[in-house]
Amino acid sequence: MAAELVEAKNMVMSFRVSDLQMLLGFVGRSKSGLKHELVTRALQLVQFDCSPEVFKKIKELYETRYAKKSSEVAQPQPQQHRSPEALSIHSSYDRGNTVARTSISTTNIDYPALYGKYLNGLGRLPPKVAKPEVRLVKLPFYTTLDELLKPTELVPQSNEKLQESPCIFALTPRQVELIRNSKELQPGVKSVQVVLRICYTDTSSPQEDQYPPNIAVKVNHNYCSVPGYYPSNKPGVEPKRPCRPINLTHFMYLSAATNRITVTWGNYGKSYSVGLYLVRQMTSAELLQRLKTIGVKHPELCKALVKEKLRLDPDSEIATTGVRVSLICPLVKMRLSVPCRAETCAHLQCFDAVFYLQMNEKKPTWMCPVCDKPAPYDQLIIDGLLSKILTECEDADEIEYLVDGSWCPIRAEKERSCSPQCPILVLGSSDVNGLLPTPNGNGENGKATADVVDLTLDSSSSEEEEEEDEEEDDDDEGPQPKRRCSYEKGLVSAC
Hints:
With 495 residues, this protein is α+β, with helices and mostly antiparallel strands.
């Protein structure tokens, strides 16, 4: 039966539009649409409703199309050992009568494994001309162990807005053991998972995960939870949905039984592709350990980078003699523990790798908090020079790199910034617009000079000095003209 199905699919793939319309009309299905839509319906017919009458009709159409006997089609030419994925149609043309000749290989067919290669009823047979495949970006927190289903386009089966695309596959015993023996990240969640990834059908570059509208995923009659939308705090801005791999493991049969996955999606003009993968989910602590193992940049290389940044530019009129770097993480405003930055960043300022990985584990953005440019995990490096500085300089929160690559802590300026910059009000001064009483008790005559009180002396010596100052003040000619300007006419001192 499996060999007949593969044979029927191969024959249908070689049909023209007229043949496809005759086949669909024979079973009472719609004959309208483009060729790829007709092929989709015909293949779905073969996969799910291939009765002996339908198979006979396919053979008749095939014989009529290529003017060959059914016996020649049913008997494949001897081939060498080939895998099920190598099943294909080999067409050649006779230059004399331009009649296509077809040979079909059906040896060594593993039907459950072959079943996992279909989606939407489409057989993933190798095309005659190699076409570029859809590729998905690598995710730092997911290590791919096996590819269960290559990215396959979701093909609409009708003109309805809501479409359903089924997929059937089975896990191998090795894959089942990997899942069962993996550790638990949290109760009920294994580290080895079967995930579904969805993206745009675009072969120009690796694609990020992107969900179609109205998405729903059902595994063996159970619906999986799909990440919801992030609420938006800005008025008029639509909430965003984090598009991540969808974990299907807890609804799957961890045995040799086949699993059925149905993807429901909204058909609104854009084309999407889906893929199934066996992955191992990593934690931020594991990524940090990996970064410490392979991502540390030697202090001498970091020092050479500092010199390069501060090198005199002959075309510039401004000479840079130093650059300051904070030892405080811009993410959490705490002292750096693992200074890190992206190789693609132009700045020397670092952020803390521990908090950066933890934040991207919860909400993956991979944007540098210093320059707001992409900082993916595979571009991160640990600054060996700044790590060394953090151990040697524990009493400063900022340093300055110099032209020769050396550094110095910024301590003195910090202490200076702690001292008040405004003038100090001296005790006994009358330069407060007459609101404070003067030491000599004269309400109308202010003092021209301020009295400075030394708090280190005892009280008796202070009183003696005050009396001497009062006697000297009595001998003065009076207040300076500038002092008299402090009181307007008609105003009397509050003293």
